[in-house]
Amino acid sequence: MSDIERAEEAHGQAGTTLAKPGGGLPDRFENPGLPPHQHRMGDTDPKAAKRAERQVAILLLLSMIGSIGIIVSIIAIKYDGSFDRIGLSTRAIGLSMFLSLFALGVGAVHWAKTLMPDDERIDYRHRQRGTDAERAEAVAILKEGAGEAALGRRPLIRNTLVGALALFPIPAVFFFRDTGPLPGDDLSTTMWKAGDYLVKDPEGGRIRAADVSLGSVVHVLPEGIEDVEDVLNQKAKAAVLLMRLEEGLLTEKSADWGVDGTVAYSKICTHMGCPVALYEQQTHHLLCPCHQSTFDLTQDCKVIFGPAKRRLPQLPIEVDDEGYLRASSGFHEAVGPSFWERG
Question: Which of 2, 127, 155, 334 is buried deepest, with most CB atoms within 10 A?
Fold first, then answer.
């Protein structure tokens, strides 16, 4: 078979004349437009190839060190509730992860650019299914490529690559383990219980019912919250807004759970858990600044606008013999966004 016939068969154009005047293949077959191949130092100099192999191995070893560093950071730097400790742990894990990923990526790129074959080859388009001989040739080419990758002849790269890839996913086990057990109902329950006095946040101090003026709003927490072990999470869930309205504006249920028009509602938005911190005194609306969910105090904090799907939970309160406000019970429903209930 002539060169022209082979080209015609490869392009599925048998019967079409591809020859140019004077004989030979058309220019698009003879000159594909590739520049002359430039050999690399590793292709011609065994010492350069060995040097590149060592460089790749060092990078893969650094990746292994980074992966081990992630595990050590998780185990050695325990969280004690302080922000400094959180920052130290985050920086140590982040730097170790950077070293692991960066060294693994650079090592792979350096290996490909210095040691793997870089010959330019052309494979003209042909019919989808080749002949058995062509398929056998393709398998031979793949085997040849695997051989040219030189994993068998470069055990140093092979072994360090196996080590880096084996160590890299192990830190994920520690990340998942560090998330702890399923939360159960811990997200939707708070430390509020009957008899807990309302104290101002953040300055502290019990609150007298007589000191809450009409139209005012006070951010409150349960007394003694600073003594609990998980104070940050407890504060996030137990935050409450205390407001006073004219009693005639409240529903019967809200008034019964309040004291002389003073009512307490969860500060945690039922949409995504943002703090509901804006109170419109004239309209008696509470506004979440994150996604503009709006709750109407005169309708048991019913949602009147925005993406929230349920009202803010109310905290029943009472007054003691000395005139201080305290909770008559805990919340009767889950606080916070609805997905917390599915913990």
Answer: 334
